[in-house]
């Protein structure tokens, strides 16, 4: 079995969550969160920021580490066990541009309930749910301090 590690971001801008739509030869299509493979010598946080930028064009800053999801699938020659480390991130802009070379056709920010129903994979929904709870609790704490 091959072990693989990726990192990604749940990017939020004004309460909306950044998603990507991928369509690869009509065999793989659906809405996903930005993520990608850790390069040699790279820290997980660096990978998450880089992958978000490459796949969406968004300059995002990490707020905090959210957790790890894991799954397995059959690769070309062997089974692959993948771990994905997720970070809650924020953006200072609504701008996004999907990376066409990776077969992303669309990118955009969606309200929580829309993003929840659009996401293709349950593990990504769980991580988004965790990140959004953290985001809303931080925001409530911030607004109370300003009163």
From TrEMBL:
PROSITE patterns: NUDIX, NUDIX_BOX. One of its GO terms (biological process) is AMP biosynthetic process. InterPro entries: Nudix_hydrolase, NUDIX_hydrolase-like_dom_sf, NUDIX_hydrolase_CS, NUDIX_hydrolase_dom, Nudix_hydrolase_domain. Keywords: Hydrolase. GO terms for molecular function: bis(5'-nucleosyl)-tetraphosphatase (asymmetrical) activity. Residues 3-132 form the Nudix hydrolase domain. Belongs to the Nudix hydrolase family. This is NUDIX hydrolase. It comes from Bianquea renquensis.
